[in-house]
Design a protein that fits this description.
With 644 residues, the chain is mainly alpha-helical. It contains 27 helices and no strands. The longest helix is centred in the first third of the chain and has 45 residues.
């Protein structure tokens, strides 16, 4: 007896895009129905602003009577001020010959004669650019901040590397510190430490300490367990194991922590000029306020040169091993290196006694006039192109998005954020993002936050477009990657302020200027992440796709980009954090919104409450955007899901 198979008709399935499209339509209908209601307009006299301003008045009155200020805060300020004065006094006392000789000696010890020559030439450029005194002041502030950061960060990092519990406790704190835009550190410093070098050094220290802790903890954690067990089995105590096993084996990575701390500090000390910290930042702030690129450019170039010299020197020290640089290993090689370093040091100190300490005026290259002439020529020649790009972007993308966010009811925006974060990262990050958004509303900064958010979204879309194009091209072309890599290295070394120079020269003070600066600032790490993601796709998968007849375009769309999804989402996360920091900094070139509120709060005492609240709102906005994207890479890719 035979049986016949009876097929059950399959039920129709909706396309995958149907549910998201339905949600978008639902939100569009709600927006059209409730547009212009519950919009929370900005109020300069909002209750939180007044309360914070009154709190500042109380703090000012309590500084001479409250024990917290008398016996702790004031002594911290005096200690940091003394360290800075000591650094600055020593560097200025060396004069330009002594400082060049000292830098030559440090470079020789770190990486040989090439690094020594780079250090001497780089520091000599400060004088040629006409910013010697300001550069030394910046170097003193960096030295103070780095000393404080490493003094606290290295021991804490070692402890965290040996204690998983402490590491878990520190991670969320360090996350918040790294998400915070640089502006957000300034308001508390003014509140507790007044304005000046101590407040700038402490703000820089707090900004620069996370990499010192994180990288040191990673270095200690990655020490070979076999080496640790061998030390313990020989009867060594925990302290002896730390001193003779952990620290020597982690030395190279810990030197990288020093490098990253210096780079972070250098990017912050310029911004610290907004609270009257000395250094190169004063020239940049003055040039921005006058829209004078000729004043800013020498200081900007000096910052870039200082960053490159310090970066190359510390990285050379991190890579150095006995026998490097053609020198023999052991005591002979060590003495040879010390003798080589002694030559520029002794020569510099001898010349410091024989020559004036001030950089010779005849050796300064005048730049302001020619630079301003070149800027005027570029503005005139490229006016049509730059205006077209700026106008099209503003009218087609930025202004409509800004109008959408500022005219939508606050509850509708909150619902959209909650849904997007839930879909991308899960319930806990979604609730965190929603809480941040509601806190912004309670601060009274909803409208300005929506304007800032619109600028961030446009900048992130642009930087992802640039990152995808350049990253994919570099992953497919080793020659392009080789050309592009040193440019990306240099771009990542530059402090954020430097990117305002070309943006201001090309587009003038507008919101688009802030967006353009954000794109060129955030592009290098995004390009790197996309390139690494595409390059790391397994060759066997690529070969299988090609053997199946895939075209290069199909290979990219259906294999490489889906498999590089995690790297691309991480690139989006980094792009958001970096563009938020730079868009806020763009307040100095016409960006407005929250960045302008922060700057206004520093410059006008009556607006302190608004400026402080705006700094908090920037942090909340950064955490919200980070939580939306940080868990997206853990969601299963459509190509990894099992088909039903």
């Amino acid at each position: 007896m035979s049986t016949a198979a009876v097929s059950t008709p399959s039920r129709p399935h909706l396309p995958r895009w149907a549910a998201p499209a339905g949600v978008v339509v639902l939100f569009a209908v709600a927006y059209l129905a409730f547009r212009g209601t519950a919009t929370l307009p900005h109020d300069d006299e909002a209750a939180p602003f007044v309360a914070i301003t009154e709190a500042r008045e109380w703090v000012d009155l309590s500084k001479d009577s409250n024990p917290l200020f008398l016996y702790f805060v004031n002594y911290v300020r005096l200690l940091v001020g003394w360290i800075h004065v000591t650094f600055a006094g020593a560097l200025h006392a060396l004069g330009w010959p002594g400082l060049l000789g000292l830098m030559g000696a440090v470079g020789w010890l770190a990486g040989g004669w090439r690094i020594s020559l780079l250090g001497v030439a780089g520091f000599a450029a400060f004088g040629v650019l006409g910013v010697w005194e300001s550069s030394v002041d910046t170097l003193a502030l960096v030295g103070t901040a780095v000393l404080l950061s490493l003094g606290a960060g290295l021991p804490l990092g070692v402890w965290a590397g040996r204690s998983p519990r402490l590491r878990r406790a520190l991670n969320p704190v360090l996350d918040v510190m790294q998400i915070m835009p640089t502006f957000a550190y300034l308001a508390p410093m003014v509140l507790f430490f007044h304005i000046g070098a101590p407040a700038g050094a402490i703000a820089t220290m707090i900004y620069a300490i996370p990499p010192a802790i994180r990288i040191t903890a990673l270095a200690i954690d990655q020490v070979s367990p076999a080496a640790v067990e061998a030390s313990s089995s020989l009867g060594a105590t925990r302290w002896q194991t730390l001193r003779k096993v952990h620290l020597p084996l982690a030395r190279s990575t810990m030197t990288l922590a020093v490098n990253q701390t210096i780079m972070m500090a250098l990017s912050m000390v310029v911004i610290a000029n907004l609270i009257s910290a000395p250094g190169l930042g004063s020239d940049i702030i003055r040039g921005l306020s006058r829209q004078n690129v000729g004043i800013m450019l020498p200081a900007g170039l000096a910052i870039v040169v200082m960053a490159v010299v310090l970066d190359r020197t510390t990285m050379a020290a991190a890579r150095r091993r006995p026998g490097d640089g053609g020198q023999p290993a052991g005591p002979v090689g060590g003495w040879t290196r010390v003798a080589g370093a002694a030559v520029p040091a002794v020569a510099g100190l001898a010349l410091a006694y024989a020559l004036p300490g001030a950089w010779p005026a005849g050796w300064v290259l005048p730049m302001a006039g020619p630079v301003n002439d070149a800027v005027r020529w570029a503005e005139t020649t490229w006016y049509g192109v730059t205006e077209s790009v700026k106008d099209v972007t503003s009218e087609v993308v930025l202004n409509p998005l800004q109008g959408l966010l500022t005219s939508a009811p606050w509850w509708l925006v909150a619902a959209a954020v909650l849904l997007a974060a839930w879909w991308a990262s899960g319930p806990r990050p979604a609730l965190t993002a929603l809480g941040c958004l509601l806190a912004i509303a309670l601060l009274g900064l909803w409208e300005h936050s929506m304007v800032t958010l619109s600028m961030v979204i446009v900048a992130v879309l642009a930087v992802l477009g640039v990152g995808l194009v350049l990253g994919v091209a570099a992953a497919r072309s080793p020659r392009l990657s080789a050309v592009q890599r040193p440019l990306l290295d240099a771009a990542q070394t530059m402090p954020s302020f430097v990117y305002l120079l070309p943006a201001l020269a090309l587009f003038g003070p507008t919101k688009f200027t802030a967006i353009f600066a954000s794109v060129i600032y955030a592009a290098p790490p995004v390009v790197r992440l996309v390139e690494e993601g595409v390059r790391n796709v397994p060759p066997a998968v690529v070969e299988a796709a090609l053997s199946a007849g895939s075209t290069p375009g199909q290979l990219l769309r259906k294999v490489q980009l889906p498999m590089a999804r995690e790297s691309i989402l991480l690139a989006a996360n980094q792009g958001i954090v970096l563009t938020l920091a730079m868009v806020v900094l763009g307040a100095l070139v016409g960006g407005g919104a929250l960045g302008y509120d922060v700057v206004s709060g520093f410059s006008q005492r009556t607006d302190f409450g608004m400026g402080f609240a705006a700094g908090v709102a920037i942090v909340l906005l950064g955490i919200m955007l980070d939580r939306i994207t940080q868990g997206a890479d853990s969601r299963p890719s459509p190509h990894r899901r099992m088909s039903p």
